[in-house]
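User: Working on a comparison across species. This one is MerR family transcriptional regulator, heat shock protein HspR from Desulfotruncus arcticus DSM 17038. Can you predict its structure so I can line it up against the others?
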Amino acid sequence: MPVTEDETLVDLESLELHPEIIELLAEFGVLELHRGGIRADHAARAEKIMRLRRNLGVNLSGAAIILELLERIEQLQDQIEHLKRR
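Assistant: Here's the predicted structure for MerR family transcriptional regulator, heat shock protein HspR from Desulfotruncus arcticus DSM 17038:
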């Protein structure tokens, strides 16, 4: 997804992640690199993945899958709430 003018980019160095991990997360589709930075929401995703690794001991690909599933659950919960309000 392209970055719009009103979106803030987070400097990759501020993430305190090894460049190889950043590259792997980009390959997994967890984040998109833009001119030496990533969107703030992608920085939050990277932080969640690193928390999953640290707290649960899952590898990067497993953490990426868990993150995708958690985000999908959140979307479905939002849809359910929207339908209940109808």
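For your comparison, note: Residues 60-85 form the longest helix (26 residues).

User: Helpful, thanks.
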